[in-house]
Structures are given as structure tokens and as C-alpha cells.
Design brief:
Elements: H1 2-21, E1 36-41, H2 48-62, H3 66-69, E2 70-74, E3 79-85, E4 91-93, E5 96-109, E6 112-126, H4 150-180
Antiparallel strand pairs: 1-6, 2-3, 3-5, 4-5, 5-6
Helix pairs in contact: 2-4
Length: 184
């Protein structure tokens, strides 16, 4: 009877852990695809060009090579478009190592700017065998290679979103810091 109690307790603990692993709401657009948007309002003293230049400086501080990240930029139109891959500790998916790639767009107007992460790609590779893991942002299951339980995919979705949040917060902090920097 005591063993049955411990088995039930173990299953209950696993169930609670499963439920608590990934409870995040992912932002999506009208088509249901992942899209994170943040509009940042600034002091009216900051012009579109000044914010644009601050963003370029900030991106060069965040990324090893800003030229590898930025695909298109136009100071007159007020936008920067780029792609980058997370370089944090790789996510371990059974026997797959995975990473996430973001597409980022920054739009600038006088006294405000907008950051849009509108595409998120998940890539995985195996150290031993061929691994085919679908995008955890748009897929509810793994169809081949390494298969995970749904809550593990949910955890990956949340981790990818958290990576977006960290990148955006770092970028916002640096843009503001560069805008308010006074020359010595």
C-alpha cells in the first residue's frame, strides 16, 4: 500500500511538472504565425534619424558582426531589417541540438520606434543520426527523427519566445543608453 502511495505521488508530481513547464502566451498575428511587436515612445526631442543611428550603434554592440545581421537599411525611409541566430546555450531536444533564428524589423519615426520579430525559425541537428524536428513555434508534434511529448515542444516554444524578449530588452536598453549619451 505504501508503494502504491509513492507511485501515485510520483505520477502526480510529474503531471504538475508537465503543466507548469510551459504556460506562456505566444504573440501571434492575424494568420496565427508568431509575431512579437513592441512600440517604444520616447521624448519628443529625439528625431527619427537620431533614433535610427542609435539603433545601428546598439546593434553593433549586441551582435558580433552587425553587417552579417542587417540585410536592408534605409535611413531616409526609417527602417532596418535583419536576421540573427541565438548564440545562447543550445536547446537539448532528446538527441537533437536546436537553435532559433529571428527576423527583426525596426521602424523609426520622430520620438518613437517599433521592433517587430515577425518570423521565428527553429533548426535542429543530431550528433549521431539524421534528425528532422519541425518548427516548435508552428508544430504541435515531431514527425520524424526525435519525437518529443507535446509539453516539451511547448517548453521549446516558451524558450524561443523568452529569447526574443531578452534580445528586444537588450536592444531597447542600448538604444536608450545611446540616445541619452552625452559627449565628453
Amino acid at each position: 500500500m505504501k508503494n502504491l502511495f509513492y507511485i501515485i505521488l510520483l505520477f502526480l508530481a510529474l503531471y504538475v511538472h508537465k503543466i507548469s513547464i510551459a504556460q506562456c502566451d505566444l504573440p501571434t498575428n492575424e494568420q496565427g504565425n508568431y509575431e512579437y511587436v513592441d512600440v517604444i515612445n520616447l521624448d519628443s526631442a529625439f528625431s527619427r534619424v537620431k533614433i535610427y543611428n542609435s539603433a545601428l550603434i546598439s546593434m553593433s554592440s549586441i551582435f558580433k558582426s552587425v553587417n552579417d545581421v542587417i540585410e536592408v537599411k534605409d535611413e531616409n525611409a526609417g527602417y532596418i531589417i535583419g536576421k540573427f541566430t541565438t548564440e545562447s546555450t543550445p536547446f537539448r531536444l532528446a538527441n537533437c541540438i536546436s537553435y532559433f533564428r529571428f527576423s527583426i524589423r525596426l521602424d523609426f519615426k520622430d520620438s518613437k520606434y517599433r521592433i517587430v520579430i515577425n518570423y521565428l525559425e527553429h533548426n535542429a541537428f543530431s550528433l549521431s543520426t539524421s534528425c528532422s524536428c519541425p518548427n516548435p513555434i508552428t508544430s504541435d508534434k515531431c514527425d520524424g527523427g526525435t519525437c518529443l511529448y507535446k509539453y516539451e515542444w511547448d517548453k521549446q516554444r516558451c524558450e524561443a519566445h523568452n529569447e526574443v524578449i531578452r534580445a528586444v530588452e537588450n536592444l531597447k536598453d542600448l538604444i536608450l543608453k545611446n540616445l541619452t549619451y552625452t559627449e565628453w
